[in-house]
Amino acid sequence: xxxxxxxxxxxxxxxxxxxxxxxxxxxxxxxxxxxxxxxxxxxxxxxxxxxxxxxxxxxxxxxxxxxxxxxxxxxxxxxxxxxxxxxxxxxxxxxxxxxxxxxxxxxxxxxxxxxxxxxxxxxxxxxxxxxxxxxxxxxxxxxxxxxxxxxxxxxxxxxxxxxxxxxxxxxxxxxxxxxxxxxxxxxxxxxxxxxxxxxxxxxxxxxxxxxxxxxxxxxxxxxxxxxxxxxxxxxxxxxxxxxxxxxxxxxxxxxxxxxxxxxxxxxxxxxxxxxxxxxxxxxxxxxxxxxxxxxxxxxxxxxxxxxxxxxxxxxxxxxxxxxxxxxxxxxxxxxxxx
Length: 338
Description:
Elements: H1 3-34, H2 50-61, H3 66-78, H4 84-107, H5 117-130, H6 133-145, H7 154-180, H8 190-211, H9 221-254, H10 264-313, H11 318-321, H12 327-336
């Protein structure tokens, strides 16, 4: 076998190895970022981006990337302890959770474009809220069984763990799915860019005010999410959800604003309810509007095909009796009528 042939044969394995290394590296780096807001024992945080990265990797490349997820989870947890056996058990839970979420989503026919209402519902309720129950339960149970936490700390730690894993799916996964198909728009009016900047800036400003006010003003975020979904669909809604959730997570970790005066469990319940509502609102509206636009395009295309077919069958009558769905054609016919 020649060197060129051997290289061609080994190239797919090299590409697969690089892919697995990239997934494991992204898992580890994002985990270190999430640990900046740890609340329990230095390793349980209300924002765990690796779950979103792992789930998207499974969506794009299938179950064969699970070893990369497991490696990333092990590298993160081995530095946190408490000992090697609990670390291995936590790694298993952190690996199985996104795998189970992926299998649930695949079971219901989830599409990564997130352009259907059922896809948005599936990602929220199956991918995030249900799929992440496993890692939270296994991880917290292992910490209690190993003596790292007391039994009284189980539910507060579990709530933080589940909130963090679910947030990783709700916030990171839609953003990665949008970025996967992102392209730099050309010929976009300046006002459109100004609107996008105003949307992102306004979302951040309102969320900061709402999460630092003694009065509960979290509902003020809603109009900005609706604005993002109606005007920019998922491409605008996903960044707004990220901004809102990260700011709210920081406020929840610090116990400020609407999270003040509550114990850890109550803070996580409020945070999860808020983030779930934000994500559900943005994803559902984006999916509904995308579906509407697609339906309108399909109706227009069907009308155009019908008009063309009628024009071929009755060329003298079809143009006058069957107006096209295209505005420029309708205007042309009006100007040329006797």
